[in-house]
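Subject: design request, 335 residues
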């Protein structure tokens, strides 16, 4: 059995940064994640995708952000249980929780911080009859390495941030990029929409709106997609890769059975300290919900920072917490 101060479920960026904030208060952390490596969705879904809203970094690759976070928390010696899903959580007594993973690992802690991102997730697939036949043979739901598409003919479907951002990135990598969307308006950031429109005017992106992909063809992998535009006959379009980016279907998984207040597949929290309805259990990052919630990494960092302050008081109710700036010698774990 493993014992720690704070059990963090989820080793994504928010979970990793929480280790740093907890370390400043001399609290030990153990992280559990169903993925085989730290980084969460950053490493699993888009390690080579630039991120633009991390303070101090005009642009940083998702994988590099994970690497930097791991270096930042290294002095605090966190422990990891990776490749195992958090399965059951029970209260041993008034001051201790016991978590059992899908492989039988048992971890006990007085505080549990759920930082599981979207929880368990799977890509939303378009309703194309034979799409499974081409999975990993031309159809990808996640872009891990854009170099895979260098010099290739790529068709992206979707109207959100992922579809827009990857169309912009692949415009300089693929030989051809077509973006197909069911409408003329997009759900993504205005800046990204403007960039796509500009690239379309320059001929670097083939923008096809009021249309959808209705079929896939090819003998030894994908070679053509069938496009149906409003008011026009269906036609085929050459493609080496078809990438439908319609988002992820989140599921809380076993966490949904832990007696927590759930709203719209997310955990309801108190914004004073991001505590749940169960004392000693907190939820930070994309997995929580509250009025005005924004699913941004930097917001998750803020939530984790306030959460560990409350966690310290929960673990040591009789001790006075003295907050110090990280510029004060001796509080940053490096001395």
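Subject: RE: design request

Done. Sequence follows.
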């Amino acid at each position: 059995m493993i014992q720690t101060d704070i059990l963090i479920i989820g080793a994504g960026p928010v979970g990793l940064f929480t280790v740093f904030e907890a370390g400043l208060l001399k609290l030990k952390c153990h992280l559990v994640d169903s993925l085989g490596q730290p980084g969460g969705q950053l490493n699993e879904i888009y390690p080579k995708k630039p991120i633009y809203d991390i303070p101090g970094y005009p642009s940083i690759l998702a994988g590099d952000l994970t690497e930097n976070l791991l270096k930042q928390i290294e002095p605090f010696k966190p422990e990891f249980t990776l490749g195992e899903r958090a399965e059951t959580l029970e209260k041993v007594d008034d001051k201790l929780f016991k978590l059992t993973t899908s492989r039988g690992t048992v971890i006990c802690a007085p505080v549990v911080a759920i930082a599981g991102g979207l929880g368990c997730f799977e890509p939303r697939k378009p309703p194309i009859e034979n799409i499974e036949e081409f999975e990993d043979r031309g159809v990808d739901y996640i872009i891990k390495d854009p170099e895979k598409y260098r010099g290739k003919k790529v068709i992206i479907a979707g109207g959100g941030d992922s579809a827009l951002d990857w169309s912009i990135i692949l415009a300089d990598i693929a030989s051809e990029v077509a973006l197909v969307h069911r409408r003329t308006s997009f759900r993504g950031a205005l800046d990204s929409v403007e960039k796509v429109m500009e690239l379309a005017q320059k001929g670097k992106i083939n923008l096809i709106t009021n249309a959808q992909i209705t079929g896939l063809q090819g003998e030894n992998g994908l070679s053509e997609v069938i496009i149906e535009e409003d008011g026009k006959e269906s036609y085929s379009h050459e493609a080496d890769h078809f990438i439908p980016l319609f988002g992820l279907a989140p599921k809380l998984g076993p966490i949904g059975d832990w007696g927590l207040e759930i709203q719209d597949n997310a955990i309801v929290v108190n914004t004073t300290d991001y505590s749940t309805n169960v004392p000693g259990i907190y939820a930070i990052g994309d997995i929580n919900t509250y009025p005005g919630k924004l699913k941004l990494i930097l917001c998750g960092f803020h939530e984790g920072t306030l959460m560990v302050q409350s966690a310290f008081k929960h673990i040591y109710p009789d001790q006075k917490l003295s907050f110090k700036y990280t510029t004060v010698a001796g509080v940053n774990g490096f001395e």
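The mean pLDDT is 91.
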